[in-house]
Amino acid sequence: MLPLEPAAAKAARRIHSAADLSVRYLAEPRLRPTALPIGTWWWDGKQNFGDRLTDFLLPNYGIAPYHASRKHARLFGVGSTVDATYPDYSGYFWGTGKYMESDATHRKRATFLAVRGPLTRDLLDLPASTPLGDPGLLVSKHVARITRRDLVGIVPHFTHWDSPEVRNLVSRLGKSIHVIDVRRPTVQVVREISACSVIIATSLHGLITADAYDIPAMWAMPDPVLTGGDFKFRDYEAVVTPSRDRQHLLATVRNMDDAWENSATVSREAVRTAQDALEAALQLLLSRESLRASPYQLPWHVATGLIRQW
After folding, report:
1. Which of 1, 109, 176, 288 has the most crowded CB, counting CB atoms within 10 A?
2. What are the beta bridge partners of residue 264?
3. What CA–CA distances, in Å, run from 272 to 43, 131, 286?
4. Are 142 and 133 in contact (CB under 8 A)?
5. CB of 275 closer than 8 Å to CB of 141
6. Does the CA dihedral 180-186-188-191 come out positive or negative?
7. How many angstroms separate the Cα of 29 from the Cα of each of 26, 35, 62, 150?
8. 38 - beta bridge partners?
């Protein structure tokens, strides 16, 4: 379990994040002449590129999310955040997933624009026609891949940064491996992943980013085991590799050849289908929500969302 963050430190971090978001929106051409401002909840307990994909991706589609409390949010996006909502939640989910298989939470008043995978869909008793896919697959549409290097990239979940299994892997592969820190800014992490020739991930969005760029990848679950175990990986994999399991023990990767042998790419057709469904879901959101604001009005919405969190 992560240690509790002091209230003053949390407040300072959120104020800094809100200021950064406001400046970014003022300079974002895709939010002109107006955009949809929408209170959105994403986990912000630590800087983690996967959790920040929602506010990174949405401005590309004319949507300006601002961080809101769970009570006031109208949208939940990237991450295993279905269970973070209240039972009477009546907003939107976009590519969201559940944490674990045994928890059959229902949100009957909510609109499911898309969910991460079929395991989440079935646990929520949603129609078979519900769009599936993790929004992280869209990163390749908005961040150009940089020159590929002949490196194995390891993308540890932030809780695995000091894992002995990860450290031993790095020691075995030496100069052939590049360790990617998910606590860095989102675009930097995405670019570092895109530059590798093979990816080993214990971070789900490290795996998803590799798939977005058609990079061979595998995933592992070292100690400490993530909350919910491997559920979110299986939920996502059922969309892009329904007949294969790319999970391997890190101990099986002794050299570069093992990394290549254990890794695999996913169906490009499945990726494109998910991307199209996720983008169509955003168009549906835009058609249902009439509020629009200019870039100069967006900082007011960001500030409102910040104030309501206290």
Report:
1. 176
2. 217
3. 27, 13, 21
4. no
5. yes
6. positive
7. 8, 10, 9, 35
8. 65
Tokens of 267: 């169906």
- In the chain the domains, ranked by start, together with CATH numbers, are 7-137+272-307 (no CATH), 142-268 (3.40.50.10140)
What is the per-residue burial (b if ≥16 Cβ within 10 Å, else e) of 147-176?
A: eeeebbbbbbbbbbeebebbeebbeebeee
Residue with tokens 């890190």: 250
DSSP 95-109: EE--S-TT-----TT
* Tokens standing for residue 99: 């944490």
Share of the chain above pLDDT 90, in %: 78
Contact 210, 74 (CB under 8 A): no
Tokens 């129609």 identify what position? 127
CB 226 within 8 A of CB 206: no
Alpha carbons 129 and 102: distance in angstroms, whole number: 23
Distance between CA atoms of residues 116 and 118, nearest Å:
7
**167 vs 162: CA distance, rounded Å:** 7
Q: Residues 82-131: pLDDT tens digits?
A: 989 998 999 999 999 998 887 667 789 999 999 999 999 999 999 999 99
Furthest-apart CA atoms within the chain: distance in Å: 55
Structure tokens given for 278 = 């996720």
Instruction: Tell me the pTM.
Output: 0.94
DSSP single-letter state for residue 2? P
- CA 239, CA 243: separation in Å to the nearest integer? 10
Residue 28's SS3 state is coil
Could you tell me the strand order of the sheet in which 198-201 lies?
Answer: 177-179, 152-155, 198-201, 217-219
